[in-house]
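Saturday, quiet lab. Running sequence design on the structure tokens for the scaffold JK sent over.
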């Protein structure tokens, strides 16, 4: 049996394939993920900040990106070479927020059906892109854990997330250990249950689809709803007010928490290092749980027919119930 500690030590080697596939391609990996959500997708400052953060990620990971697409260059996934696009330059030169939805995907594999440690996804709809025009802007970036062991450790990863928060001013976000499934949505419908199997055992492990979460944040409101807590959790001042005020949410968290301010919000750090927990040992990360309790009044609830996790069963309702139970996993 794989233990929690063994999994952390060998996280970059973790791979799962779909046993139904003739060719055992990797459908799930594990690593670090960061997702941030911004209130106004048409705000020029937000869109330029998205572009700058995307450029920053691409500069960091360099040649690890094999394919990409973005609204500046093209609309289909193709080969990517470092330096192919400078998104901030393109947005600064002209951005028609009424007619131009800005977004992109950059991926560590040429074949999107294969899971990758490296994934960048971001989006901000135009004002004419109904019904998506009211969906919050989103930014999602992932890494292998070992990438940070060689670059200053998890403290450096936390500093990067905070830096992105200072640029983007998210209303909500989270970062920590994450399941990294296939980018291809048809493949995720086939193999997404693999992520569910792992996430149900390890409550500190995130499963994410940033565009879906952004849509649910709006659909389940008003006000905008939240997904969950993680090692790093971003909350803006408006969210804090809706939860009873900054003092109610933050003042009694305890010495194990860190608070990293950004313009209009705070990034809450739950402990010195991320945690996985282990249901088989009846272990839920206590700091994650403490923060999660405070976020419950604004937690999103997926409606029937919608899901973030995939059930092995054929019924869509199974996946909806599974998703909502998982969102409450830290209670």
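Result came back. Writing it out in full:
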């Amino acid at each position: 049996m794989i233990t929690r500690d063994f999994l952390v030590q060998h996280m970059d080697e973790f791979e799962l394939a779909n046993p139904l596939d003739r060719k055992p391609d990797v459908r799930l990996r594990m690593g670090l993920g960061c997702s941030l959500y911004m209130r106004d997708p048409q705000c020029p400052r937000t869109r330029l900040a998205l572009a700058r953060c995307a450029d920053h990620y691409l500069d960091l990971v360099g040649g690890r990106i094999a394919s990409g697409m973005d609204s500046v260059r093209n609309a289909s996934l193709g080969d990517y070479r470092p330096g192919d696009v400078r998104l901030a330059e393109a947005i600064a030169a002209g951005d028609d927020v009424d007619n131009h939805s800005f977004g992109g995907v950059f991926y560590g594999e040429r074949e999107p059906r294969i899971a990758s440690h490296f994934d960048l996804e971001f989006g901000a709809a135009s004002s004419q892109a109904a019904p998506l025009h009211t969906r919050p802007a989103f930014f999602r970036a992932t890494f292998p854990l070992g990438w940070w062991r060689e670059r200053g450790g998890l403290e450096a990863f936390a500093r990067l997330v905070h830096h992105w928060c200072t640029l983007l001013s998210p209303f909500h976000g989270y970062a920590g250990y994450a399941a990294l499934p296939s980018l291809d949505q048809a493949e995720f419908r086939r193999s997404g249950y693999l992520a569910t199997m792992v996430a149900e055992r390890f409550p500190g492990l995130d499963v994410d689809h940033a565009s879906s979460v952004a849509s649910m944040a709006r659909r389940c409101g008003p006000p905008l709803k939240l997904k969950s807590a993680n090692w790093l959790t971003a909350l803006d001042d408006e969210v804090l007010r809706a939860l009873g005020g900054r003092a109610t949410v933050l003042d009694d968290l305890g010495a194990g928490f860190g608070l990293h301010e950004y313009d209009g919000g705070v990034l809450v750090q739950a402990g010195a290092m991320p945690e996985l927990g282990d249901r088989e040992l009846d272990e839920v990360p206590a700091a994650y749980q403490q923060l999660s309790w405070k976020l419950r009044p604004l937690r999103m609830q997926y409606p029937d027919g919608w899901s973030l996790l995939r059930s092995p069963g054929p019924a869509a309702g199974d996946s909806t119930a599974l998703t909502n139970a998982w969102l409450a996993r830290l209670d």
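Notes for JK: The CA atoms of residues 51 and 160 lie 16 Å apart. The chain has one domain: 22-327. Ask whether to fix the surface positions before the next round.
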